[in-house]
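Need tokens for this chain, all 340 residues.
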Amino acid sequence: MDERARHLLKSLIEQHIAKGVPVGSRQLARDAGLNISPATVRNVMADLEDEGYLISPHTSAGRIPTRVGYRFFVDALLRVVPLSAESNRLLIHRIGFRAPDVEQVLHAATGILSELTHMAGFVRVPRRATRILRHVDFIALHEHEVLAIFVTDKGDVENRLIRTEHSFGAAELTQAANFFNATYGGRPLQDVIHNLQRDLQQSRHEMDLILRSAMELGEEMLEEDQQRMLIEGEFQWLDLPELAGSERLRELLAAVRQKRDLVHLLDESMRGSEVRLFIGEESGYAPLSDCSVVSAPYSVDGEVVGVLGVIGPMRMPYQQIIPLVGGTAQLLGRALSQSG
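Here are the structure tokens for all 340 residues:
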């Protein structure tokens, strides 16, 4: 693409992002600052349309960018501006450097992203599959009730009430906990579940009821991981002309409620350390084909544990949103690390 075409494409996309309407050749010739005629601009725009960068939504209207056009804009033409001092101060105020409660700081991160971008903010809650099992305790509550307490190295605590036909004494439960911790303690939670399933297939001991219940509790924790995503501000999509009242909006809202496929996409964003963009169908997820996802991983104590970002229309101010998402990810990771 020659320099003139690059300049016109950049100007057109910036105007479309700002105003949300197709851009005509006369307007582009006037605003691009190249001192060329509308006829010349029309010829260049026609070439860009033939190459897939632009599209005419109506016969007599101007042109708007395609997904390919936005991708070229982001990769080759965009000049990302630093995060403004005002936005940085607001992020620090809302997220802080210390988090008294993990859920509180995660909600704060999604809320501020939605507020500043007028789009849906999301955060993938830290996964527990790689968490290390610290220990399990079994406590007798009543004659036929046992409380199982599951603790990981990151401080996750899950409780489950187990109802039994046999009455277990304190010594038996201590023995079961000691066996469980000696056999499976210090291993990733995913490995604990796998090994315990294998071992239970080879044993018919009466105490297996307690061990099996502990395994089920661990499985429930991992199953919850498949859905552990916070999202706020999705109803701001109702104000977007690209989505308002469309079938695509209904599909998108349904996808947010269902979450599983969306979570899988976000997990892909954790493979790396930089801000990532999925523009339109690049996500491979049909409900997002008219949207862009800007995401960044966040780390706790040097380990990538989740991802956050925004979901909005392809027509978004990338030069502002990219540093905002990246800065929020850094502050979130710092807050979670210092909170323990």
